Amino acid sequence: MQSQDMLFDKKGGYRKLFSFTFATIIHLGTIDFCKRFVSYKDDPLGKTVGQMIGAARSGRQNIIEGSERSSTSKQTEIKLTDVAKASLAELLGDYEMYLAEKEIVPWSNKDSNHQAISKIKPPAFEYTDDSMHDYWCYFQEVQKLFDPWIKNSDSAVVANTMIVLIQRTMAMLYGQIQHQGKAFLKKGGFNERMYSTRKSERDNKDILNAPSCPECEKPMIKRKARTGTHTDSEFWGCSAFPECKGTRKI
Questions:
Q1: Cα 197 to chain centroid, rounded
Q2: What is the pTM of this model?
Q3: Is there a contact between 125 and 135 (Cβ–Cβ < 8 Å)?
Q4: Contact call for residues 114 and 107 (beta carbons, < 8 A)
Q5: 244, 238 Cβ separation under 8 angstroms
Q6: Contact assessment for residue 214 and residue 237, using Cβ atoms and an 8 Å cutoff
Q7: What is the rounded average pLDDT for all residues in the chain?
Q8: Looking at the structure, do residues 36 and 134 belong to the same domain, yes or no?
Q9: Which of 24, 86, 112, 246 could pair with 215 in a Cys bridge, judged by C-beta atoms 3.0 to 4.6 Å apart?
């Protein structure tokens, strides 16, 4: 494995995430919802519309940024995924308040519409070397699966649909955060991998230029004396240490 492969994790790939596709549906759906159902008279300064669309956008864009930052910072990827989840939670509250103002109770999870939307499972995204074009062709097909609810003329149906989609997306993002946390514990952060890669490169170079151990004939590694009259002076030590304690002078 090349040192660069050891140092950098894969980045990007967010178009393959179902959470990203759902977040995109939510973003576009929220824009459409605000255009159709949030009257300027009720929102003269545009604060409700701005905050709702801004929260929807934040959910989607932070998935993108977190995915792109994953190669050099798992911590940042986790934080941005969590920001995406928190932004969608904020948007969820806005849809709940929209229904509350109309004295409408959100759908029960036993409601037939709730269950129908929850059961829709889009196919995996398959792509060629033209991934952006491929994605939007794929997205339009997935979006159509939810059109009967998102394009409904009843604002309560649309608001409830967005609530269900947001809840599903937040659950996906929670799963991603758990997975990212496990990857961080297993591989460590970028600084840890940088040190490990640098050390591996140095050790490999030492082994290539090293003499054989006089005791077992295995490659030797440059080491530094830690104690005694030769403290900090370099010497060749057997790579099989502590099983073999062979040494040579440099």
A1: 24
A2: 0.72
A3: yes
A4: yes
A5: yes
A6: no
A7: 87
A8: yes
A9: 246
